[in-house]
Amino acid sequence: MIQNVLDGVLTGAVISLGAIGLTMVMHMLRFANFAYAELLAIGAYAALVFDKVLAALAPVLASAFKPLTLSASLALATLLAMAITGASAVLLDWLIFRRIRAKADALSMVFASFGVALIVRNAITLAFGHDAKLFSKDIAFATVLSTDPLILVKADQVFVLIAALALMAAFHIVLTRTAFGFALRAVAENPNLAQVAGVRLSTMIVSVWLIGGAFSAAAGVFYTLTNHLSPALGHNFLLPVFAATIVGGIGSVYGAVLGGFLVGVASALSLAVLPSGYVPAMPFLIILAVLLLRPHGLFGEDQA
């Protein structure tokens, strides 16, 4: 049971990073973007490519920081992937969602997001194939923290949790201590009033896509550090990320973080009582429960 909780916390950190950007996009643009989770896959594959290129150009960067499997080339590749994925999110909005937003309603954007998700997923499959891939072929041994009950932890898992929490803490500081953060929060609360106060809505929309894309890329890389990478990565995280957003309350960054950890732990604990084939249904059950008991989430407000 304790092992399940630890695994759930790790997964929850990844889900939380993905949910932060989604909750901001949903709140600001008022539509459910079902293509959003594909940004995790874009980021992970971008990091994979940059990692190989950097390692080939400078082999010394390919050495792992023991006991981690993380190398200097992958660390740099992750930063590049965050930038590329943020730019990709902005490009998708500029090419597709912005144009639909100007001519149609939110429902049309939802349907469009399904199409975008399929296009991105199949484009990744076409470029990289169906085979699972790994950042490193080194075997990562787990450390036994306890034998009764059995608790195993890998160094990569500890790093992922610390790095994810560090990103969340950095974003908290930006939101609460900078003029940009105040402007972002103002637009999230009341876009029209924020524009009257001099905040450029178009700039904030681009910023939200950039931040969301960067966080999603980090989430994709962190997940792949302790698992394998496949084109289905975004599809597999779609329900968990949406569940975290809904549990926390649409528009609440802190709610998305808490929701991510709750969904991660709940899914991991379900392994103790349910066959593994039923675990993917857990986020959907959580969404239904929240919609029935508290439709606006833990920290959300009625937007009507």
Structural notes for this entry:
This protein is about 70% helix and about 5% strand. It is an all-alpha fold. The protein has one domain: ABC transporter involved in vitamin B12 uptake, BtuC, CATH 1.10.3470. β1 and β2 form a beta hairpin. The N and C termini lie far apart (about 40 Å).
Features:
mainly alpha, ABC transporter involved in vitamin B12 uptake, BtuC, two-stranded antiparallel sheet, 2 strands, globular
Task: Output the helix-strand order.
Answer: HHHHEEHHHHHHH
The top-level CATH class is Mainly Alpha
- Indicate the structural class: mainly alpha
Q: Helical residue percent?
A: over 70%
**Can you name the CATH architecture?**
Orthogonal Bundle
Query: How many discrete domains?
Result: 1
* Cα-based radius of gyration, to the nearest Å: 19 Å
Average of the residue pLDDT scores: 86
The protein's oligomeric status is single chain
Give the SSE map:
Blueprint: H1 2-29, H2 38-57, H3 72-103, H4 106-128, E1 143-147, E2 150-153, H5 155-177, H6 179-189, H7 191-196, H8 201-226, H9 233-248, H10 253-270, H11 282-293
Antiparallel strand pairs: 1-2
Question: What is the structure about, briefly put?
Answer:
With 304 residues, the protein is mainly α.
